[in-house]
Amino acid sequence: MATKWGIASAGLISHDFTNAIGIHPSSDHQVVAVAARKLEDAKEFAAKHGIEKAYSDYEDLAKDADIDVIYIGAINTVHLEMAKMYLNAGKAVICEKPLCMNVKETKELVELARSKKVFLMEAVWSRCLPAYQALRDEIAAGTIGEVKQVIATFGEIIDVPRMHKKDLGGGTILDLGIYTIQVAQMVFAGETPTVVAGGHVGEDGVDESTSTTLTYRNGRTATLVTHSRVKLPNEAIIVGTKGTLTLPYPMWTPTQLHTPNGAKNFPVPSGAKHSFNFNNSANMSYESQHVRECLLAGKTESPLVSLDETLTMASIMEQVRKQIGVVYNQD
Question: CA-to-CA distance for 87 and 93, rounded, in angstroms?
Fold first, then answer.
C-alpha cells in the first residue's frame, strides 16, 4: 500500500518536497492532493506534479479521506493552526521547521499530537540523510574518541521577506539556526545545554546574525553561528579527543562526511522529474521515506527527531533570540 500524501502550501519548499517524493516508486508514495491560498496556485502545482486534487482551502486536506499524512510547507506563523487542524482530523503531520514560533506553541502542538496518538514530526530532514547516519555511526564507533566540541555555521546572503519580516516569522535563528542546533543536539544526545547568545537585530526586529555558545556537561561545548547578510563556511565540525569529523558545505544537506580515514561520499538521489529550488533537495526523498517507515511501524513520533528533542530545540531557539532581543507577536 502506498503512503498517500497531502501537501499544504504550494510554495518553493513544497515543490522540492513533492518533487523529491517523485523519486520513490508510486507503489510506495502517492501525492493525492495539494492546497494553497489561491486555487490557481494549487491547480498549477497539481498539474506540474501530476496530483489529482487541488484545493483552495487548507481545511479540505483535513476532510479528504484519501490522505494518510500531510506535509506543511507554509510560513512559520501558520504552522500551529494548520498542524492542529490536521491532527484533530486524525492526519499524520510532518511540518517544516521550526515546528512553531515559540516554546508555548510547540508544547501545545506536542501535547495535542500525544493526546490524539497521531504521528507528528518536525521536518529536520538532515537527520534522515546518509551522511548524518554515517556521522552517528562514526561517533558511536569511537573514531574520534570523546567528542568535546561542535562548531557549526549557516549563513547565506538572503534578502527575501520571510527572512526579515517579523509578521512572517523571520529571523536567522528559526530559519537557519535550527540546522546548527540540531547537529549539536544530535552529537550530544539531546542533552539540555546552557545557552549564551549575542547577535544583531534588523530593521523589523528579527535577528540578522547570531553567535551562540551551548555548554553541556563534562567539558563539552557547541559554537554556533548564523547570518543572513554574509555567506559563512556552512560546515559542521565535530571535534573529539582522537580526531575530527566534518560535514562540509552544505552541512544541512551534505553529500560527504570527512573522517580521519578519508572522505565518505553520499551522492544525492536521482530521478526527480523537475529541477529543485534549493540545494540538494533531492535528499528530501530520505525524509519522506522515513515518514513512511514510521507510519508503517505504527509510530507516533520519529526516532530521528523525537518530539522531546523538538521541544528542547524550541527552547534553545527561544533563549537565543530573547537574549538578542527578538520578540514575536506570538510570545
Answer: 7
